[in-house]
């Protein structure tokens, strides 16, 4: 893990580091902290079954497995481990359950907005901004006053990367009317 973070972590945000550490902690907590060459495909199956038993849908299980595979691959190549990656090719059944996030109903949004008008404080301003614009919480929290363009022909918020808050994706940089 340390080698992976050192080599692949250049220019990455803290989410990258937190995710890698968490996924390897899952491995070591369940299977033990051992030499790469000692993990087997049976261990990888046990690892998969652990997440399936928690009723996770296939998507997050695949995400964790992909991260663990990448970390193993880099470590094995750098350290000269010739065993095949046991986390590769592990079947993850599609149990047919796709957890679809439903949008917040409009009447609930309106109730929240009404509450925000009644209580005039920073927290309510933040909630109202998120409700009005659809911004992520982390995007709204990281704004500068200069990012809010009220005098423009079309008033908008310029959502951009800042040193204290990166954006989730490159396409997250945008103007929000």
How would you describe this protein?
The protein has 177 residues and is mainly alpha-helical. It has 7 helices and 3 strands. It has helices spanning 2-8, 14-31, 41-53, 58-79, 106-118, 122-133, 137-141, and strands spanning 148-149, 156-159, 174-176. It has a 3-stranded antiparallel beta sheet with strand order 1-2-3, with no helix packed on it. β1 and β2 (156-159) form a beta hairpin. α2 (14-31) packs across α3 (41-53), α2 (14-31) crosses α4 and α5 packs antiparallel against α6 (122-133). The longest helix has 22 residues, at 58-79. The two termini are 43 Å apart.
Distance between the termini: 43 Å
User: How much of the polypeptide forms β-strand, as a percent range?
Assistant: 5-15%
Major sheet details: 3 strands, antiparallel
Number of strands: 3
Element-by-element helix/strand order = HHHHHHHEEE
Say what oligomer this is.
single chain
Q: Count up the helices.
A: 7
Shape: elongated
Helix content: 40-55%
**Nearest-integer average pLDDT:** 90
Task: Output the strand order for the largest sheet.
Answer: 1-2-3
């Amino acid at each position: 893990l340390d080698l992976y973070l050192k080599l692949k972590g250049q220019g990455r945000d803290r989410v990258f580091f937190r995710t890698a550490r968490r996924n390897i902690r899952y491995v070591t907590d369940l299977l033990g902290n051992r030499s790469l060459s000692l993990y087997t495909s049976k261990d990888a199956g046990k690892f998969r079954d652990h997440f399936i038993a928690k009723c996770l849908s296939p998507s997050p299980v695949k995400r964790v497995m992909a991260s663990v595979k990448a970390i193993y691959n880099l470590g094995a190549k750098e350290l000269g481990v010739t065993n095949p990656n046991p986390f590769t090719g592990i079947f993850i059944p599609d149990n047919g359950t796709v957890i679809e996030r439903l949008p917040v109903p409009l009447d609930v949004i309106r109730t929240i907005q009404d509450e925000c008008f009644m209580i005039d404080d920073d927290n309510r301003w933040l909630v109202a901004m998120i409700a009005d614009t659809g911004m992520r919480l982390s995007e709204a929290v990281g704004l500068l006053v200069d990012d809010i363009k009220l005098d423009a022909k079309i008033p908008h918020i310029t959502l951009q990367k800042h040193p204290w808050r990166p954006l989730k994706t490159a396409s997250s940089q945008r103007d929000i009317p």
